[in-house]
Structures are given as structure tokens and as C-alpha cells.
Amino acid sequence: MKLHKLIIMMMAFGLVFAGKATLFAQDDDDNGQEVQEMDEDEWQKQMDELNGQKTQLNQKLGDLNKDIDALKQTSAQKDKDVEKCTSDLYSMVGTTQSGVADFRKKFEETERKINSKTGTPADARKSYFDDISNDKERCLPEFQDRYASMKKKLEDWEGQKPDMSGTYTVVKGDCLWKISKAKYGSPYFWPAIWDANKAGVVNKDQMKNKRHSTITNPNLIYPGQVLKIPQLTDAQKKEAEMKAHKYRKTRRHKKEEMKKDEKKDQKDMKKDTKKDEKKDVKKDTKKDDTKKDMKKDTKNTKKDTTKKK
Questions:
Q1: % pLDDT > 70, the chain
Q2: Between 20 and 30 A from 47 (CA), which of 63, 129, 149, 173?
Q3: Closest-CA residue to 44 (of 68, 17, 71, 67)
Q4: How many helices (H) and strands (E) would you count in the chain?
Q5: Tell me, what's the pLDDT at 23?
Q6: 3-state secondary structure of 149
Q7: Distance CA 61, CA 67 (A)
Q8: What pLDDT shows up at residue 277?
């Protein structure tokens, strides 16, 4: 690109110089001295020199363009060779380019889980270390060394014993309010314990009932659960206390709403009962009136019969 610009500038300079050469006349230069007019021989000599330079540069430009075209062809051929080698490599492990893309997503997700120790080793094996181990794609150069490193990290993680210093084992009669008071000296920090165990208790893999492996409802904890008891800063304690008060107000409001609904239902039931009683009374009254009318009709009929006789 730089050479192209240089050539263009030289050609432009030559054309400008050729157009202006005949216009040079006596004039003052920057120092106030007169500039002599260029004669025809001198002009022709400079034009010949510049045209010669132009020809040389055009020749160089042509040679460079040929080199560029040759390099493009070589690059295209190399790309085809690389594509064929990649395709052959993928076929050796029984996959395709799209298959490798799907495998890469699983691999990177599992790699992140193991590196950050997210969840448990069992979670990492399930999603998706065991699948990766049974897949030949792990032997590809892109994954080979990373798989060996990931496998070692997982095995080391599985060999670690959980730190039980910041934990508490739930017994019958426990609640988060009571545990918070015992561990922190205040019952109002229980939301911090709840947040730490929402995703899963320490021994969730050992819990027979899957519902007991997490704490989705702060009012439901079960004996045998090993809870994480996080260390709290002053700011975290304040935040937990605010959550506790907010949760309590919300529950109280719900209870009040339930009581209102119950009272309303009771009133509606009483109204419905009274309406039904009134309807029954009216029905009974109508029945009695109907019976009386029937008796009167019967008596009148008898009287008419007697008179005729």
C-alpha cells in the first residue's frame, strides 16, 4: 500500500510539473531574486527523466501485482489444505465441525464449573465430565491438555473433605430463627443462613429425599441437614436483619388478608344462610296456602253436590 501511494504521488507530481513547466517565467523567489525561465531543452530533459521514472515505477507496480496474485493463490490453496486436514482429523474421532462446536460448549461449561468449584464434584460429573470422558473428541489437540488438567482438578476436588467448621446439623425442633440466635447471638440474621443454603445444603448428595437437599422455604428445614453458617460482616448483618423484618411484615400482612377473607366468607355464608331460610319459609307458606285452598275447594264441591240432590 505504501508503494502504491508513492507511485501515485510521483505520477501526480510528473503531470503537474509537465503542465506547469512552460509557465515558468521570470519571477521573484523567496529571497527577492529573479528566477530564470527554463528553456525547451532543459524542460525536455526533465520530462524524459520523469517519464523514465514513471515507466520504472509502473513496471515495479506490475511486478508487485503479479506477486500479490500469486500469494493469493497460494493462500487459497493453503486454506483448502488446512480445511481438508481439519476434516480428516475430525473424521478420525467420528465427528464433524458442528459436532466439535457442540462438544466445545459442553467442555467449556464443565471446565468453568471445575475451576471455580461450582456445586459439587457429582454435579460436575453429571454436567458433563463423564460424557466428555467417553467421547473421542477430547483427544483433539484443542482439548487434549485441557482435559488432562481438568481431570486432575476434579479428582483433587473429590478427594477434599468438606470444611465443617462453619456448619450446623439440624435436629428435631430446630428453625432458622433459633439457629441464627445460637450462632450469631441474634435471631434476625436467619435470612443469611437461608440464602447460603438455597442452592443446596452441605450434605445434599447424602440426603435420601431430594426435597431435603435444598431449603426453598425458610420455614421448612429437616433433621439431618447440614447447613452452611456463613461468616457475616456488619453490613451483611444489617442487610439480613432488614430482610427478616420485611419478611415478617409480609407474613403478617398475608395473615391479616387471610383473616379478612375468612371473615368475609363467614359473612357471605351467613347472608346466604338467611336468604335460604327466607326462601324456605316462603316455600312453606305457599305450600300451606295451597293446602288451605285445596280444602276450601273440596268443601265447596261437597256443598254443591248436596244441593243438587
A1: 68
A2: 63
A3: 17
A4: 9, 4
A5: 43
A6: helix
A7: 10
A8: 63
Closest CA to 219 of 186, 183, 243, 194: 194
Write down the pLDDT at residue 117: 87
- Cell numbers that stand for 219 in this block: 420455614
**Overall residue count recorded for the chain in this entry:** 309
**Residue partners of 194: CB distance under 8 A and separation at least 6:** 176, 215, 218
Distance CA 205, CA 121 (A): 10
Give the HSE-up count for residue 196: Cα atoms under 13 Å, Cβ half-sphere: 20
d(CA 88, CA 94): 10
Residue 128 CB-half CA count within 13 A = 13
Q: What is the pLDDT of residue 193?
A: 94
DSSP-based three-state secondary structure for 216: coil
Percent of the chain past pLDDT 90, that is, above it, reads 53
The pairs formed by 101-105 with CB atoms below 8 angstroms and a separation of 24 or more are 103/132, 103/135, 103/137, 103/143, 104/142
The CB-side HSE value for 67 (13 A sphere, CA atoms) comes to: 6
DSSP 8-state class, residue 202: T
Regions of the chain with pLDDT less than 50:
20-28, 308-309
The whole-angstrom distance between residue 206's C-alpha and the CA centroid of its chain comes to 30
Amino acid symbol at 16: V
Extended beta strands in the chain, E state: 27-28, 34-35, 167-169, 226-228
- Measured distance CA(228)–CA(160) in Å, rounded: 17
**CA 80: distance to chain centroid?**
37
Which residues are within 8 A (CB) of 100 and not within 5 positions of it... i.e. 6 or more apart?
A: 90, 137, 140, 142
- DSSP, collapsed to helix, strand or coil, labels residue 221 as coil
Would you state the cell numbers that stand for residue 74, as one nine-digit string? 497460494
* Residue 44 near residue 21 (C-beta atoms within 8 A): no
**Is residue 158 within 8 Å of 140, Cβ to Cβ?**
no
DSSP, res 228: E
DSSP state of 37: P
Q: Rounded to whole angstroms, what are the CA distances from 149 to 104, 152, 198?
A: 16, 5, 31
